[in-house]
Amino acid sequence: MSIKSRSARRRAREYALQGIYAWIISGCEYQERGAVDAHIRNQEEFSQADEQWYKTLLYGVFDQAESLKEKFAPYIDRPVNELSPIEYGVLLLATFELSALQEVPYKVVINEAVDLTKEFGGTDGFKFVNGVLDKLATDLRTVEVNAFAKKG
């Protein structure tokens, strides 16, 4: 996908994921949050991202990381500390969107998470992320998932 065709929200998700990745790598230290945010905001093309969406995603994950992890942990086949940092970051980000941002359709959340994993993660990481999020969406957004299933 060319950089010009990306929406401001897509860019915000990419930058939020980069920030979450850096935060994970730093050991999820509280004091690193501001430094991570400042570093991401200083990137050359950050102005093309939806700044408010980025902030909502980044700090939503920072503030709720433990509860987000508890939500997706039942659906992963290994301990969280064995996930790649990208898979872990994408799962945190998408779990936050699924649980806290109901205005975003669950299919959009999953598609964006899969695309981010394809772009930044390992070869087959997107399949793992997709499987986890499909199951998680059924729990977190039962009514929406069932309504979609009835249409199909």
TrEMBL record:
One BP term from GO: transcription antitermination
Domain NusB/RsmB/TIM44: 10-137
Pfam entry (one): NusB
Source superkingdom: Bacteria
InterPro entries: NusB-like_sf, NusB_fam, NusB_RsmB_TIM44
Transmembrane segments: none
GO MF terms, alphabetically ordered: RNA binding
Keywords assigned by UniProt, alphabetized: RNA-binding, Transcription, Transcription antitermination, Transcription regulation
Keyword field contains RNA-binding: yes
Keyword presence, Transcription: yes
GO cellular component, one term: cytosol
Family stated for the protein in its record: Belongs to the NusB family.
NCBIfam families for the chain: nusB
Known function: Involved in transcription antitermination. Required for transcription of ribosomal RNA (rRNA) genes. Binds specifically to the boxA antiterminator sequence of the ribosomal RNA (rrn) operons.
Protein name per its UniProtKB record: Transcription antitermination protein NusB
Gene of this entry: nusB
